[in-house]
Specification:
It is built from 6 helices and 8 strands. It is of the alpha/beta class. It has one domain (9-74, 124-212). Strands 3-4-1-2-5-6-7-8 form an 8-stranded mixed beta sheet, with helices on both faces. α1 crosses α6 (196-208).
């Protein structure tokens, strides 16, 4: 290793290991010939994008919680409740927030669903998760609806086309998202490619939130 190169280190390798496990699990469902065929034809027996998105948010929540271990911060799926406790936000795939909640649906020791209602004052960031993201199919209202509840909104896609990354990022910024990441790129002409640089940046941004933990 040259003197100009810094070592990757154990922590970075462990974080990359998390990415590669997710990449393997998710991309397998994207490239499989049978799955692609029934998805294209919208046949019965296919897994809906909503379910894939929910699985992505679950994996990301686990990864974020690991980064935030030892702090007063955590991540959950749920709604934000306004200051007076009257109205709630749109559904939030991921809320990074200070510990504590107003209510919890179906959250038990061995929960099937663990959905939290969290005061907006506790929220630092909300992350919207998508399955296969195209710039032409991005929700133009989500950030407008969420801004009264939280200022920082990130966008995280399972995957997008290799040539779409920049256009999606530009549109995401125009729509009000602060950050955009994707797990990997994929198209019918290209094999899936994990976004290692993006993952490191994502983990770094989560790490920066520790400054808000007392």
């Amino acid at each position: 290793m040259s003197s100009s190169q810094s070592p990757r280190g154990v922590v970075q390798l462990l974080q990359e290991e998390t990415l590669m496990k997710m990449f393997g699990e998710f991309s397998n469902w994207r490239i499989d010939t049978f799955i692609r065929e029934i998805t294209k034809k919208r046949q019965k027996g296919r897994i809906l994008p909503f379910v894939r998105g929910l699985r992505l948010s679950a994996h990301l929540i686990y990864a974020i919680r690991e980064v935030l271990v030892g702090t007063n911060l955590t991540a959950n799926w749920g709604h934000l409740v306004d200051e007076k406790g009257i109205f709630c936000s749109c559904e939030c795939d991921i809320i990074i927030h200070h510990q504590g909640h107003e209510a919890r649906w179906n959250g038990r020791e061995n929960q099937i669903m663990d959905f939290r209602f969290i005061k907006q004052q506790k929220a630092l960031v909300v992350i919207s998760c998508k399955s296969y993201l195209r710039s032409g199919y991005m929700d133009s209202e989500y950030c407008k609806l969420m801004k009264p509840f939280v200022k920082r909104i990130w966008l995280f896609a399972e995957c997008c086309g290799p040539r779409s990354v920049n256009s999606i990022r530009k549109k995401a910024l125009r729509l009000g998202y602060e950050k955009f990441w994707h797990l990997y790129t994929w198209s019918k002409q290209k094999t899936p490619e994990p976004n290692k640089d993006g993952w490191r940046e994502f983990i770094e941004e989560v790490n920066k939130l520790k400054q808000y933990s007392p």
